[in-house]
Specification:
Residues 217-238, 827-846 are annotated as: Disordered. By secondary structure, this protein is mainly beta. Among the domains are: 75-160; 499-603, Immunoglobulin-like; 618-759, no CATH class; 770-889, Immunoglobulins (Immunoglobulin-like, Sandwich), CATH 2.60.40; 900-998, Immunoglobulins (Immunoglobulin-like, Sandwich), CATH 2.60.40.10. It has nine helices and 57 strands.
Length: 1002
């Protein structure tokens, strides 16, 4: 079989729409393509790879399409999916969709309408990712061209009368019937290869093609200030050639590799991720060479250079509405070839044997129709946002670059976009530059073909505006879409690490008594700029706050800030807790989080005040049952005293020290000799103690030993008590000194402490006294009196003082008895050594000097004596054991006196008697009670007892009233002449003389 004549249109079959497609149009007055002519662009599927031969272009002038080629079959659906049949109405807000049949590939379509109001025709192609917009027409006549057109959408308001469209196969058949001759060749810009047949002047043809299709203005991607395509700077075709000069070597190299391999889809390229010299097996990006080429083909200039885009600057017709068909034919590796099945040799696998498809090159053509003067709408303005604010990008601080993701929708299929960033009035192209010119940019496509994303990884921190325009496949730019990205706050500085030490102030001599301030030494490490977070500002200063008071230090170039702050003034031996926090502030004024608070306790280095212990001889408590006597020292604490230490020594140790000083014959020897001489003639502890106190400065700390652990001072100044036990048998003086300990653990000067002498209090109680009590005979008109005699037998200690105690009943608990009297007792005068004292007790006491003894009460007495106080102003001696209990009761010698003032009265009620008694207290006590006996004698009758009344009843129960009278009411109304008799009976049963009265009148 002879080879096919590839220059003849008869050699080609129509390619499937998913193999070859394209676009042809009259661009009209598009600013970037304002020359006359028609433009066409071939769009092969990437799996088709590259043609095996150069492409042939057959130009066929259809004129206005003949009726025999016109098709009208289309499936119309309203917005709810219901079928429609022309004529039908399109209403605002309710678009109508027309689906082209699958039996033909639509390449030209026009919609006939009347009553037009604001109609838009959008043509779509179906892709594996969904429906994608190919071309739009927003004005009459509504004609669109593209291969393929799978669906159209009508929006606005009009009445559709019919639709007409051309099938690619019908157009190809018409061109075959006319035996349309070869019009132009489009070849790769390189010579032939193993799997490609080119032409001899391929490079020259590519240059000519590039100049024909070159834009007349710079692109929107190279015109940051342009707000519309017409405002882009003008350009010449030679400038386009210059722009591509930097890209052509890379493109040609890929083309050369692809045409010399049988499997171009397996060819890969690797590029290092970290720039030149930084690549490697683990940080290189590998991509298919064929994919990289097809990405570059989005740029119309590169598509023109490769041979997939061209212009017909002298079309065969200029009549508006006429159609010119460009049939682009070549040999391709078809996506749908016939398959020869060849079994593979079995490898023993249980699975069924696989098959191998053998592909044969196929001569295929695609039909692209262009309608004269039927210019489609320019690419729509992309819809942008809302933007996503991404992370800060790695940059050397203080450079701040962040990532901003700009969602883009309403995109055309296969177009490129301009990506412009505005900062105030300054606009910058975000395209990569090659040879001083911007490289084309395609958004990262999402799952929908009309949606994508643009990513700016160099956005500044402030508010920016993004402008995006899109360019269609033949190089027309559309309107600009814009969106604003809000400012992003710079990352705050890191929280500092704060280190603080306190240096106590030096204490001069003599020690000052006022306030002193130490020094706070502050250290703050400063992170290097490289350690700051991406996007951060440089550090400007550090602010250290001391108890709410700030202090500022500039950072500069320091790696660590070291500075001093004056500490707060502290009183002597004072203590204060302070808190310091630090924070960085960057050059933009942003503050970091605070450091961890540093809490320090500052202590004044001076000693606290010496405890103010009162000087003078002290005595211990009396020995207890264990033979120990307790020393108690009390004093008032002062501010700054944290604890106290008690030191002890005794008289023997101090005497030895004085003798040692005399032996050493030093400067203190005379004082020590004088002290020893004075102590030698001192008779008792009271006279020795002041001698030691006077020479306290001679006795240093080495002569004393600490008593127990330090004792904490109270939280607030107040009284402090220290105690120490001594043996009761100790005969010599003991000596104590108390020093205070400050918050800084500094003791008050030992030499300033008070030397406190203490003597053990002896058990010097005299013998138990003997008590005798006798009642004196009662004298008329005189109070009852008990004569008391206290006798103290001879003993070790002589009594110097007595006290007499009295009680009513009881007497076993001496603490419940009343001290009747207390006073001195004379020494013994007789040879038996007996001491005596007598006293007459009438019932009075220091607490109740007017009280008297009463009859019929049992009184008890006890007595105690004690020795004189210890010499030197010691505490009073202890009272001796009390005497045995002595008790007596006073009984009057005579019966009670009669009542006084007896009267009787009667009105309409029973008779009432009134009477009094001269004794104000008729109380018999435990012996018994006084009782009034009231008798009545009616005229002509005998006496009868009508009432007995206890004399000690309270007034509310019928006792003596406030006026001193008793009241007795008879039980009946009695006649005149009735006599009454009243007697008082004492607890002994003795009765007073009776008193009579008679009722004289009612």
């Amino acid at each position: 079989m002879s080879p096919a004549n590839l220059d003849s249109i008869q050699a080609y079959v129509l390619a499937a729409p998913d193999e070859l497609g394209g676009l042809a149009m009259d661009p009209g007055t598009a600013p970037h393509l304002d020359g006359a002519g028609l433009y066409f662009r071939l769009l092969p599927h990437p799996e088709m790879a590259l043609p095996r031969t150069h492409l042939r272009v057959f130009r066929h002038n259809l004129g206005f399409p003949a009726t025999s080629l016109i098709r009208r079959d289309i499936d119309w659906r309203d917005a709810n999916g219901n079928p429609l049949f022309p004529p039908f109405n399109v209403s605002t807000g309710s678009p109508v969709t027309g689906y082209l049949p699958e039996t033909g590939t639509c390449t030209w379509l026009t919609v006939e309408t009347d009553n037009l109001v604001n109609l838009t025709l959008d043509a779509y192609a179906f892709t594996p990712t969904g429906r994608t917009l190919v071309v739009s027409k927003a004005g009459s006549p509504y004609t669109v061209t593209a291969t393929p057109i799978n669906a159209i959408v009508l929006t606005g308001k009009t009445t559709v009368t019919e639709v007409r469209w051309l099938a690619a196969q019908d157009v190809l058949d018409a061109a075959r019937d006319a035996n349309t001759p070869l019009w132009r060749r489009m070849a790769l810009p390189i010579p032939s290869g193993t799997f490609y047949q080119g032409i001899t002047d391929a490079n020259a043809q590519a240059v000519a093609r590039l100049l024909r299709t070159a834009p007349r203005r710079r692109g929107m991607d190279e015109s940051p200030e342009a707000v519309e395509p017409a405002s882009c700077p003008t350009a010449t075709p030679q400038e386009e050639q210059t722009r591509l000069a930097a890209l052509i070597p890379e493109i040609n190299s890929r083309l050369q590799s692809l045409i010399n391999t049988a499997t171009p889809e397996a060819l890969n390229e690797s590029k290092p991720l970290n720039g030149p010299g930084g690549g490697g097996a683990n940080n290189a990006l590998t991509m298919g060479t064929l994919s990289l080429l097809y990405q570059a083909l989005h740029d119309p200039g590169i598509a023109s250079w490769v041979g997939l885009f061209d212009a017909d600057l002298s079309p065969p017709t200029t009549t508006a509405g006429n159609v010119v068909a460009y049939i682009i034919a070549g040999t391709w590796r078809s996506r749908h070839p016939p398959i020869d099945v060849e079994p593979l040799v079995s490898t023993g696998d249980a699975s069924a044997p696989s098959t191998r498809a053998l592909f044969e090159p196929t001569e295929m053509a695609v039909v692209l129709c262009a309608a004269v003067a039927r210019t489609p709408a320019a690419p729509p303005a992309p819809t942008l946002g809302p933007v996503r604010l991404g992370p800060w990008m790695p940059r050397a601080v203080p450079q701040a670059r962040r990532q901003v993701v700009v969602p883009v929708s309403n995109l055309l299929d296969g177009g490129t976009v301009s990506f412009i960033r505005g900062e105030g009035s300054t606009f910058t192209s975000l395209h990569r530059v090659a040879g001083g010119r911007a490289r084309p940019l395609v958004p990262n496509r999402l799952t929908e073909p009309t949606r994508g994303e643009l990513v700016d990884t160099t956005a500044p921190a402030g508010q920016v505006t993004y402008r995006v325009a899109q360019r269609d496949l033949i190089g027309r730019w559309g309107a600009v879409g814009a969106v604003t990205a809000a400012a992003l706050a710079r990352p705050p500085p890191p929280a500092p690490t704060l280190r603080v030490d306190y240096v106590q102030p030096p204490v001069p001599s003599p020690m000052p008594l006022g306030m002193l301030s130490g020094t706070l030494r502050v250290r703050v490490p400063v992170p290097a700029p490289g350690a700051l977070a991406p996007g951060a500002n440089l550090l400007d200063r550090v602010e250290v706050t001391l108890d709410g008071v700030p202090s500022v230090q500039n950072v500069g170039t320091a790696t660590q800030l070291s500075f001093d702050l004056p500490g707060p003034p502290l009183e002597r031996a004072g203590r204060r807790e302070v808190t310091l926090v630090a924070g960085f502030v960057d050059t933009g004024g942003a503050a970091s989080a605070n450091s961890e608070p540093q809490r320090l306790v500052l202590r004044d280095p001076r000693s606290a005040l010496t405890p103010a212990v009162a000087p003078g001889l002290r005595f211990t408590t009396r020995p207890d049952a264990t033979g120990r006597a307790r020393v108690r020292l009390a004093f008032t604490t002062a501010t700054g005293q944290r604890a106290f230490r008690l030191f002890y020594s005794d008289e023997r140790r101090l005497l030895h020290h004085l003798r040692r000083l005399v032996e050493l014959a030093g400067p203190e020897a005379p004082r020590a000799r004088a002290a020893l001489d004075a102590l030698a003639v001192a008779s008792d502890a009271a006279s020795r103690a002041p001698l030691f106190e006077r020479e306290a400065s001679l006795f240093g700390r080495e002569l004393f030993e600490p008593v127990g652990a330090p004792i904490d001072a109270p939280a607030t100044p107040g009284e402090q008590r220290l105690e120490h036990d001594l043996p009761a048998s100790l005969l010599v003086l003991s000596f104590y000194r108390v020093v205070s300990v400050s918050e800084a653990q500094v003791e008050s000067p030992f030499s300033e402490s008070i030397l406190v002498p203490v003597a053990v209090l002896r058990d010097d109680s005299p013998q138990r006294p003997v008590l005798e009590v006798s009642a004196r005979p009662e004298q008329p008109g005189q109070p009852l009196t008990a004569r008391v005699r206290i006798r103290v037998p001879r003993g070790t200690f002589t009594a110097a003082e007595f006290r007499l105690l009295r009680g009513i009943e009881g007497g076993q608990d001496i603490n419940r008895m009343v001290v009747v009297t207390q006073g001195p007792i004379a020494p013994a005068s007789g040879p038996d050594g007996m001491q005596e004292v007598e006293f007459s007790d009438t019932g009075a006491s220091p607490l109740s000097p007017a009280k008297t003894l009463r009859p019929f009460l049992r009184y008890t007495w006890r007595a105690q004596v004690r020795a004189a106080p210890a010499p030197g102003g010691g505490p009073p001696a202890a009272w001796s054991e009390p005497s045995a209990l002595v008790a007596t009761t006073f009984v009057p010698q005579l019966p009670p006196e009669p009542v006084t003032g007896l009267t009787v009265q009667q009105q309409a009620t029973p008779a009432q008697l009134r009477f009094g008694h001269e004794d104000p207290l008729l109380d018999g006590g435990p012996v018994g009670r006084y009782v009034f006996e009231v008798d009545r004698q009616l005229p002509g009758e005998q006496l009868e007892r009508i009432k007995t009344l206890h004399a000690d009843l309270p007034q509310a129960s019928g006792g003596r009233g406030a006026d001193g009278l008793f009241r007795v009411t008879d039980t009946r109304v009695v006649p005149v002449g009735t006599r009454y008799r009243v007697c008082l009976r004492d607890p002994m049963g003795r009765t007073s003389p009776p008193v009579l009265c008679t009722l004289e009148s009612p």
